[in-house]
Amino acid sequence: MQRAIKTAGFLVFILFIGSRSVFAGEPQPIDTGSTSWMLMSTALVLLMVPGLAMFYGGLVRTKNVISTMMHTYVSLAIVGVLWVICGYSLTFGKNILGGIVGWNSDYFFLRGIDDMVTDGIPEYVIAMFQGKFAIITPALISGALAERVYFKGYSMFIALWFIFIYCPLCHWIWASDGWLYNIGAAGAIDLAGGMVIHVSAGTSALVVALYLGARKGYPNTVINPNNLVMTIMGAGLLWVGWFGFNAGSTLQSGLETARALTMTQISAASGALTWLAIEAFMFRKATSLGFVSGILAGLVVITPAAGVVQPIGAIVLGALSSMACYFALQVKIRFKYDDSLDCFGIHGVGSGLGVILLSFFIRDSWMRDAAAASSTGTWTAWNQLTVQLVGMGATILLASVGTFIICILVEKTLGFRIDEEKEVEGLDRSLHGEHGYGLIRAD
To answer: Which distant-in-sequence residues (6+ apart) come within 8 Å of 400 by Cβ?
Structure first.
């Protein structure tokens, strides 16, 4: 009898311990290789913020270099805090409001992810990696409004743009229950943000540039860069950071990571070489600004496609992007709209081209998997092109209409377009009380 009681007690103890494991959940083991790469990728994407600040800062006039760089850096603070409070939840939570955005209370203030591990990677690392994307995206738009906006108005603009445009769009394309994530046989292809980041920012940049109007004197007055050396250095940092941007977006450390990293390098080189060839043919000389513009054209076009194309596709996409972006910059000159630092002309046009044309360079193994997942058992480049065009259309519609409404709201409240006197004086002195180089110049 006693033996039976002891045996029963032992079984109850085992079941109790087992139930604790089942209901409490055993912590998922951490994949140290993937986690290490994601930590590095997070740092690489963060490096792109000072890279962008230097790239943009070198292209404006001396009297506006500080304000232009601040437009990039302030996103670290504004979006960095909003991402923790609600951005991660709005982006990667489960569908609410008919799938317009997501929500997960565990992601609110990141309060429920302290012990969470996803696919071998601590959730904190994933949240911080994705947060860097959220930070740099509205900062890209600042290239279209440089030298002519109030800092307070700009700060309000990027906060509203992040909440009402970036988060919903990111949810549609990257969240597991987003409608563009699930459209077609395998969803809209956008590895690292061709639509989420570059097309949305480029479209919004064009809307902002048209809404604000041109800088005083543009295009009749020559507006020269204040420091091309700084711009070149910024482009170099962006190229390095882009490896974390694209290869990190695989959320692993494996074959897909190697593919994305390789295609990123190839496309950037192809874009830079093509722009040099265009300038050699047109002007018989190579410019540093053209070279770095080609680098960016190659990088933005491969951003959505790096996970699915092969080297020949990366070369072709990089070359075509440089051609398209060069043409877009000529269109800007022709129509005289002041997209100051060519956010639309490079990010919007180049990445938009990649979103569409990647359909014709997808590796065979991916297409076979898509065909197997299709209800018809077949899937072609034309099928995927249709999906990509739907994604592009949704991105452009949300970004353009949403940005226009936000511009009106900012202008009617805090004020957006700076007054003429402060613009002529320069934003560094009139808004920040500083000078970028410790000098006072009349330009």
So the answer is: 203, 204, 206, 207
Q: What is the pLDDT of residues 130-185, one digit of tens each?
A: 999 999 999 999 999 999 999 999 999 999 999 999 999 999 999 999 999 999 99
Using DSSP, state whether 362 is helix, strand or coil. strand
For 287, other C-beta atoms within 10 Å of its C-beta total 13
Angle (deg, nearest 10), helices 228-247 and 32-57: 160
pLDDT computed for residue 5 by the predictor: 47
The rounded distance, in Å, linking the Cα atoms of 121 and 39 is: 10
Residue 158: name the closest of 139, 186, 130, 181 by CA: 139
CATH superfamily label, 38-426: Ammonium transporter AmtB like domains (1.10.3430.10)
Extended strands (E) in 76-168: 94-96, 101-103, 117-118, 121-122
Place of tokens 């018989």: 284
Maximum pairwise Cα distance, the chain: 102
pTM to 2 decimal places: 0.92
